[in-house]
Amino acid sequence: MNFLATLRVALLALRVNKMRSALTMLGIIIGVAAVIIMIAVGNGAQARVEDQIRSLGSNIIMVLSGSTMAGGARGGSGSQPTIFEDDAYALNREVEEIQAAAPTLRGTGQVIAGNANWSTSFYGTTPEYLDVREWAITEGRNFEAAEMNGAGKVALIGLTVAKNLFGDQSPVDQVIRVRKVPLVVIGVLDRKGQSMTGQDQVDIILMPISTARKRVLGAAQAKNRSVTTIMVKVRDGADMATADARMRELLRQRHRLQQGQDDDFFVRNLSEILQAQEASSKVMALLLAAVASVSLLVGGIGIMNIMLVSVTERTREIGLRMAVGARSRDILTQFLVEATTLSLIGGAIGILLGVSGAMLIADLASWRTELSASSIVLAAGFAGVVGIFFGYYPARKASRLLPIEALRYE
Fold first, then answer.
1. From residue 15, how far is each of 11, 18, 26, 36, 339 by CA, in Å?
2. Separation CA 46–CA 87 (nearest Å)
3. Residue 100 zone, left/alpha/beta (φ > 0; ψ -120 to 50; rest)
4. What gap in Å lies between CA 128 and CA 22, rounded to an integer?
5. How many CA atoms lie within 13 A of 126 on its CB side?
């Protein structure tokens, strides 16, 4: 008996018991759909973390102010101003692993343009900030040296601020007021994704650090050279750990800290944090796929059970086929084809349901999903392997029946 004839007989046998065949395929359908959906969800979470890494910029290190001590209780990072604008300039000059370091002063407030207003965050910084963050300007220009030295009344704004203040109009050369200080918009920042905490990164205003210190934040800041953070970008190919160690050494020297004294600043390596988060996402994706694969195993066991029942019910038929010349190999092939066909048809239906389910989750739950061809091929291939693996025992049992005993079976 050739393969096409075997396939035709197997399909005919499956059509005789349509309900049984459908229920047998159900486990495979659910398993394949679950694998595709879970992998899509896991890949979506991983892609979101990768977007965060790209949006923050590569090789980023943050230096934060230290903490206060009052009555034995320590405040959080930034509770005591211990890092200064000159520290950033020193890092730029003296640590060769550093490509750029940008001091930043942060504030919040209402920004007004004409009849429109918007509450947002503003940062006083230097032109190097855009290099550190790998942030492009879609329209306009960056700060100039004269504006940095003379506390120029200029600003760069993010797309969210531009949209809420100016709508579809170009904001360049328009005047905004931040804490009643008029600033001319000289550029618009390119879009970026969300931050690690889910915040909109383009809901921001940048201005020269001298402007923020002397004009916007008030007299107290004008006399103080402290900054909120120093954003540092390490050169491509440079070792992050070496850069971190040399930064700490230089800052300790500048702050006159003795051996044994704790640092009066905090250093945070954003790339390591996000890479750890990415690794966690990969582990979660694998875990979800493994859990979903259990459904395929359950479906395979269901196929084996049903095929064993089928062998028992069709014992006389098997004996008759052997009596008229069918070989054990033909019987084995027939039942293997039946089991594999059930798995592949169930796998095809499961793929359709899995793809639809992943798209539905993305649409209704606003949860990012990433469908991949490899996950679909993996699920379909696994379904076929399950059919062969769990169908082999019933097929082998059928092929080893003796014709005389099979024909006498009641």
1. 6, 5, 16, 28, 13
2. 36
3. beta
4. 64
5. 19
In angstroms, rounded to a whole number, what is the distance separating the alpha carbons of residues 248 and 83?
A: 12
**Strand ranges in 88-166 using DSSP code E only, listed in sequence order:** 98-113, 116-125, 137-140, 154-157
Residue with tokens 């290099």: 131
Alpha helices in 223-369 (DSSP H): 240-254, 270-313, 315-323, 328-364
Q: Would you call 410 helix, strand, or coil by DSSP?
A: coil
CB 366: neighbour CB atoms within 10 A?
A: 7
- Rounded to whole angstroms, the Cα distance separating 252 from 259 reads 9
Confirm if 57 and 192 have CB atoms less than 8 A apart: no
Strand partners, 268: 62
Residue 224 and residue 84: Cα distance in Å, rounded? 9
Distance from C-alpha of 248 to C-alpha of 242, rounded to nearest angstrom: 10
HSE-up (13 A, CA, CB side) for residue 388: 6
The pTM assigned to this predicted structure is 0.60
Q: What residue has token string 């509450």?
A: 119
227 has a pLDDT exceeding 80: yes
Read off the DSSP letter of residue 227: -
- Among the residue ranges 44-48, 207-211, 342-346, the one predicted with the least confidence is 44-48
Whether the CB-CB separation of 95 and 245 falls below 8 Å is answered with no
Q: Are the C-beta atoms of residues 178 and 105 closer than 8 Å to each other?
A: no
> According to the model, what pLDDT value does residue 260 have?
83
Does 10 or 344 have the greater pLDDT score?
A: 344
Scanning 18-117, the segments in alpha helix (DSSP H) are 18-56, 85-94
Q: How much is the pLDDT for 8?
A: 74
Q: Which tokens is 404 given?
A: 């005389």
Residue type, 128: E
